[in-house]
From TrEMBL:
Molecular functions (GO terms): chitin binding; chitinase activity
Annotated disulfide bonds: C203-C213, C313-C350
Organism field: Castanea mollissima (Chinese chestnut)
UniProt protein name: Glycoside hydrolase family 19 catalytic domain-containing protein
Keywords: Chitin-binding, Disulfide bond, Plant defense, Signal
Length: 364
């Protein structure tokens, strides 16, 4: 009898584990801490490069650029008022943030990227919905956390990051006009603001205590970088202070919110102790030995790995992956960034990368 009870308990425990694992898209990570501001208050004198500081408070390191040379300063543990000067340590990247997305992304560039989004040639669900100002307003919410404003070791990643983010958004919301040329297809992004023909309400009852599904509400994909499932709507709504759990339709009604939710997805890790798409793109992530063995490296390719896992990555040169890459390179050109800098296959693709999470955990 005791043996039967033991077997029954083991079986029940195994079932509970399986049930708890059945939350494939729950984002358990959290937004990064606010990014330290770059110290640009000292103006350079005639003929002098001046001084710029780049701080990383989590490492207690301040990277100071003086006369074109980078020098690290650490607080003196015996006397915190005095810094200890050291040499550049590449293993501890200096990170700081400065400026705003509107400083380098202009209205005409945005319109060129998405020139077909309101076209009469296709039946788009979101004609007149997406606009430049909505994206600028949404991005301002996340600029303090480094979205589009990050310097890493004096290298500005903002322009490339915005191009990367918009490439994902465009690919996920494209009208997919079948008669368009390859170049024209890159102009059809932001045609939709919600999933087409969804037959699922994406309600996971395993989260009924923390994020209970509202009666009659469906949590299908919405936004520029669509989110799915009740718990993701709950998490995003909590961070943005909007009741998306009871009113997911708000995303379809407000383009700024639709962009904010997308940037939230970009900035938030899927699981604890994993990087976000933002982290892997700017290089604010230290690959482990397992990451190296899995051929995961910082860059645009890793953003696809974080967001879609083995639905896109580790599958060789598949069409889905190449579509994301084509949009990214096209947007870099529009924003005046040299595409050759981004064309290294190691950082551009994820063809050979092992997924951070299996498709069980990857977003649609």
């Amino acid at each position: 009898m005791e043996y039967k009870r033991s077997v029954l308990f083991t079986i029940l425990a195994f079932i509970v584990v399986l049930v708890n694992c059945n939350g494939p898209y729950n984002r358990q990570g959290s937004l990064p801490k606010p990014c330290p501001l770059c110290n640009t208050n000292r103006r350079p004198g005639p003929g002098s490069p001046g001084t710029q500081s780049c701080c990383d408070s989590s490492q207690g390191v301040e990277l100071v650029v003086q006369g074109g040379r980078d020098v690290y300063y650490r607080p003196n543990m015996q006397d915190p008022k005095h810094a200890v000067r050291g040499t550049t340590d590449p293993s501890k990247p200096g990170r700081c943030c400065h400026g705003a997305v509107r400083d380098y992304l202009k209205t005409d560039q945005f319109e060129n990227m998405f020139s077909k989004r309101n076209s009469l040639e296709v039946e788009a669900h979101a004609k007149g919905f997406w606009d430049y100002q909505s994206f600028i307003t949404a991005s301002a919410h996340y600029q303090p956390y480094g979205f589009g404003t990050t310097y890493m070791n004096r290298t500005f990643f903002g322009t490339k990051e915005v191009a990367a983010f918009l490439a994902h958004a465009a690919t996920k919301t494209s009208c997919e006009n079948k008669v368009a040329t390859n170049m024209e297809k890159l102009e059809w992004g932001l045609c939709y603001n919600k999933e087409k023909n969804s037959n699922s309400n994406y309600c996971d009852e395993h989260y009924k205590k923390s994020y209970p599904c509202a009666p009659g509400v469906a949590y299908y994909g919405r936004g520029a970088l669509p989110i799915y499932w009740n718990y993701n709507y709950g998490e995003a709504g909590k961070d943005l202070k909007v009741d998306l759990l009871n009113h997911p339709e708000y995303i379809e009604q407000n383009s700024t919110l639709a962009f904010q939710v997308a940037i939230w997805r970009w900035m938030t890790p899927i699981k604890k102790h994993q990087p976000s798409a933002h982290d892997v793109f700017i290089g604010y992530w230290t690959p482990t030995k397992n990451d190296t063995l899995a051929k995961r490296v910082s860059g645009f390719g890793a953003t696809m790995n974080v967001l879609y896992g083995d639905l896109v990555c580790g599958q060789g040169d598949n069409e889905s992956m190449k579509n994301f890459i084509s949009h990214y390179l096209y947007y870099l050109g529009i924003m005046g960034v040299d595409q050759e800098e981004a064309k290294s296959p190691e950082v551009l693709t994820c063809a050979d990368q092992v997924a951070f999470n299996p498709s069980f955990f990857s977003n649609p």
